[in-house]
Amino acid sequence: MDLTKSDKILVTCGLPYANGSAHLGHLRTYIPGDAYVRYLKRFGYDVIFVCGSDTHGAPIELAAEQAGVIPKELVDKYHAHYEHIFEKMNIGVDLYGTTEAPYHYHRVQTIIRILEENGHIETREVDLPYCETCQTFLADRFLTGTCPYCGAQARGDECDQGCQRYLDADQLINPRCVTCGSPAIKRSARHHFFKLPDFTEFLIKFNEQLKGTPLARNYALGWIRQGLKEWGISRNLKWGIPYPGDEELVLYVWAENYAGYISFTEEWAGRHNADWEEYWIRDGKLVHFIGADIVYHHAVFWPAMLKGAEYNTPYAIVASGMVKVEGHGLSKSRGFVIDIEEDFIQNGIDLDAVRYYMLSYTGFTRDLDFVWKDFQTKMNNELVGILGNYAYRVLLFIQKNFQVIPDGIIIDPIQEKITETIEALQVAVNEYRFKEATDIVMQLASFGNTFFQQCEPWKSIKEDSKRCERDLYQCLQLLTAIAILIEPTMPTVAERLWLQLGQTGSVHDTQVEACLKPIKPGTKLQKPQVLFDKIFDETIEKMSAILDKRIESARAKAN
Ligand SMILES: [Zn+2]
Ligand SMILES: [Zn+2]
């Protein structure tokens, strides 16, 4: 591990935007983020984990306007929704905050004031797009036009349908108002700009030594070398955090949302008698889990703001690949989306199996294609066929013949296998290779299955009961290690297995050293229960039909 046990580690996940329900794209980052935190805890590191709702900005103002509600109502609804989803999916944050809370306003306004005092903000008049019909300035999301790079229809902030480049509203060709379609004209307005080019040298050095996934820093370095521009941090919107000292304006949402990582830490620290400055002012190690689509914000704007306002800068930026659904890029408007509540929760899909799938289907930095049929195959072959099968046959055999942990001590080959597994796991987690980490633990279950098979306890129990007991003891020691090592991937199943093994305390508080602590002969075992239910074809057909219907109705709406 590059981190040390004396480090104060803070892990964050990119904040869900509070204008729509949680889908598979969110889980692509949150589940690896949560698994990472759980691995660190199993390895004995000092780590906290925060996340929260991102509640401001033009898209929310626009969505509330369209739904005929005030933005606060919309934001409160989705904030509660995400809190619920985090709990259901076992994403074990220490605090799930919101950028609409007073503690967040306070931190953000403090940061802006420090940036002003340190001379990093310039205020000047600029010509901005204005709609004469709507009599309003048009923030980037209220603007549409043609991308200067690829010719696709683009938004004022990025070429969302074409080349995905980050854009300035000024670069759009034939800009128009989203609400009424009138051409945008220019009108003069006062605005505040963060002097990003002053940080060019700092940002190059910062990204060169940044830990995390290589893609994040390479993207960032490419952008920085193309030349940075001053960055407008105020907006003419009604909904948002008032710009300190210029309350006719609000802060641009991307100038304040990630400050939630600080304000949530502060709020958590206040509730737990801890010191947030250990993370943000002194020597903390900050690890940001994000989707690859927001690398620019996290590896360029955010560290420059932190540096300018004299806070710690990130230690690592860990960027996940994106999500596809049945071979198509995830798109809510086209219906290629899996909704966590509607699809998984309401249909009783095993949520630990979903976590397992998200971690083990493909490498963390690759695009993950969710296919219901593949979900079934993985679940039945790996979770039911290997892990579940191993646990059940061992526990059932012992239940029938002993009811307690039989006599034995750990033999060398088992000791070595568990040690190797833990070492390999540590390397994989350190390099954010979560698929590999999951596979390593599954290999331990395969190893156990083979061991059980080769020992033939159903024979030895008649011929050599001492040997039989000794062999079964090994099987249970392996299962105990597996319960601890699958906890980051499947926390609920891990706890169930832990209890079946007659272990005390919580597996969530147990560290990897306990994998090699000899289990106690004579300990009473619980009646074995299967860990996973097989997924039948009918379930997959039902779920595929739900998805097909969603795609169909999206198509009908578009026409
Ligand atoms: Zn483009
Ligand atoms: Zn208009």
Characterise the protein shown here.
- It is a single chain.
- This protein is an alpha/beta fold and 559 residues long.
- It folds into three domains: 9-112 and 252-321, HUPs (Rossmann fold), CATH 3.40.50; 120-201 and 209-232, Methionyl-trna Synthetase, domain 2 (Beta Complex); 379-516, Isoleucyl-tRNA Synthetase, Domain 1 (Orthogonal Bundle).
- The chain is 47% helix and 15% strand.
- The chain has 18 helices and 19 strands.
- The protein has helices at residues 24-42, 58-67, 71-88, 102-117, 200-209, 214-225, 260-271, 277-280, 295-308, 340-345, 351-360, 372-401, 412-430, 434-455, 457-463, 465-485, 491-500, 537-558; strands spanning 9-13, 47-53, 95-98, 121-131, 136-137, 143-146, 153-155, 173-177, 185-194, 211-212, 231-232, 234-235, 242-243, 246-251, 285-291, 316-320, 323-325, 328-329, 368-370.
- A six-stranded parallel beta sheet has the order 3-2-1-15-16-10, sandwiched between helices.
- α12 (372-401) packs parallel to α14 and α16 (465-485) runs antiparallel to α17.
- The radius of gyration is 26 Å and the shape is elongated.
- 47% of the residues are buried.
- Bound molecules: zinc ion (2 copies).
- Residues 147, 149-150, 152, 154, 159, 162-163, 165 line the site of one zinc ion.
Describe the structure using short key phrases.
single chain, 559 residues, alpha/beta, Methionyl-trna Synthetase, domain 2, Isoleucyl-tRNA Synthetase, Domain 1, six-stranded parallel beta sheet, four-stranded antiparallel beta sheet, 18 helices, elongated, binds zinc ion
